[in-house]
Each structure stands twice: as structure tokens, then as C-alpha cells.
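Re: the request from the purification team.
They wanted to know what the chain is likely to look like in 3D before they choose a buffer screen. I agreed to run a prediction and write the result into the notebook, where they can find it.
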Amino acid sequence: MRDQLLNAFRTKMIDRNFFLPLCVWDFYPHIPAYAEAMADAPKDDWTRGYGSEQGMKARVAFCETMGALLLGWCEGKAYTEDCDPSVKVSFREEERGRNVTTYDTPIGSLQEVSQASSVTWARYTVEHLVKTPEDAKVYQYVVEARTPRETYAAAQAQLDVIGQAGIMDGAGFGVPFHYLIGAMGESPALMASFDMPAELRDLMDAMHRKNLQVVDILAKSPLLMMDHEAIWSMGLISPAIFEEHYIPYQQEYNEILHAGGKITFDHISGQYLWPFVEGIEKCGHDFITGITVEPDNCDRIASLLDRWDGEMTAVMGPSPDFLRRHTTEEVTRLMDRFVEAIGDRKVVFGTADAVVPETPPENLMAIARVL
């Protein structure tokens, strides 16, 4: 089934329905069969063996119960990075889910602090790496101290484990402005573009050079599908920023990856898509994932499918919040409404973002039954 899906993405012609839910490490332990299969996973691994051969097989088994393909989102191990020894990275865990990462370099130090939430099952950055022009120079030093190298054997081993039951994608080349938002926070990044434009331009140029090294490695790797991991920040930017700071980079990376025979996509993480549709169409992606299906937007999505027909594939689905909070009957009604809107068109259906812990698996099964 994997080859059929990859061919659909490559040709933009969907002749059957596919189910490709985005489920990551924190969802699966709540599935009894998965938890039983992983009972002997190492306790010191915070993912409890999620990315191991045992973990991949257990995830494949769960997906197969509902006729879904496993999506190894950003898991493809086609490269790693070696860091120059002049950069010392330290990590410590503090009380109440607080983690501190420190980078010490010959020209200065950086610190990032994150806080876990037991309510949202997520981790939030509460102190960003870059706060001053001097920090930007230190961060550039850290970026330039990293050298990517291929690990194709590890990627091939992953592909061998999942076979036709799923897909693994490569990642690690998000556009520089997206990385700036992560390093600074959205408001400081926007203000810094005026307050320290030279420092940010130098930093972004260094990020771009590193991305080109990564993309070149990925283009020659055994992985066939590549995820930009960038436009999920569209909720934090304007279409004008997207036009200037996203599209040119994505076009360049896609040209290299397509020349290597790869299928490329980006994930919008359930963000509000519509102001960015024309910009996304310029990027050269083969498909876009993470489009939210809601009861009142099914007709609009049907129109988007018509617009992109033969040009780009849309992968859409309910939001994680909807799947977690609503009943199986409500999920079924949403799916019935969606099918009514698209008629006899075949689709690649998924979820708008990662399915959250304690989501009833019956809700995913309901999607599969309608498809």
C-alpha cells in the first residue's frame, strides 16, 4: 500500500482512499496493545522505545487494525550532525518539568528553558536562546559548528522494518525565518528584524547554507519523502512574510529534492490556511498535510481539492482537539458531512495535527470506517 500512496503523491492522481493519521510518541502508550508490546522498553528512554524496531512494529500493528498507513513523521534517520568540540552543550532537568539547555562557545553562551504541561501534554519554551545581537552571533557560531553527515544505513533499516505498511520522511531543513521564531519567539523575532537586521541576516544566511548541506544529503538518501517542517508557523506570520522569507527557500530546496527523485511536502499543523493558499502554490510542494476539517468548512475544502486537482495533493483531517473531546458518533457525522461535500472524489485523509494522548482510538476507527 505504501507504493500506491507514494505514486499518488508523485502523480497527484488519487484513485483510492488512504488513511494517514499523525500519531506520535505520547499517543501510543494509551493504546493497550501497544503498551503491552512495549512493556519491556527501556525506562531511561523518554519515548519508551517509540523509534526502535520494536516500537515501529507495534505502531504498524495498531495502524493495520484500522487499515491505516504508519506515518513516520520527521523520523527518517538519513543524516546526523557532528558538533565542533568548541561548543559545549549541557542539559539538566529541574523540578516540575522544567528543562534547561545551555550552549557554551568561545564567543559566549546561550540558554534555553522549557516547561512541560501535564494539562496539554506539551512542552513550552519559557526562555528563548536569542535575546540580543550578541546572542545572534553566538547562535550563528553554534549553527556553523554543526556538520551534517549521512546515515543512510540507519534510514534503510527503518524502511526495511515498516515495508509496505508505512512511510518515513526526512526533515531538518525548515526555512531560516521559521527557525528564528523558534530561537527567539514570534514577537521578538519580528521586532529584531528591525532592531538588528544585519545580525539576523548573517544568521539566516548561515542557516540557509546548513540547510543546503542537509538537503543535498537527503536528496541522495534512501528516503523518498521529505518534510520541510516550516509552514506550521503560518499562524505567527503574515502572507507578506511568507512571500519574502519562506517561498524562495522552499522553492530552492524543492528543486534539489525533486532532482533527486524525492516527494516533498510541508505540514501546516491545523493552522488557518486560506490567506496563504496562493503562496503555498508557489513553493513547489507535492502535497500539504495538516489541513483542518470542520463541520462548516467541508465545502470550502472540496473547492480546494478542485483547485489543486492534478497540481498538488491535500491531506486533511479533524483537529486533535475535536478527536479528543467528541464522541465517535460526532466524528462519524463529521466524516459523513465531508464525504457528502467531496462526492465520489478519492482522498488522502489524516489528522490536522498529532493525535493527543487519551484520544479514544474508536474515533480513529470511525474515520477509517467511513473511508
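For the purification team: Residues 26 and 72 are 14 Å apart (CA to CA).
Please add any questions underneath this entry.
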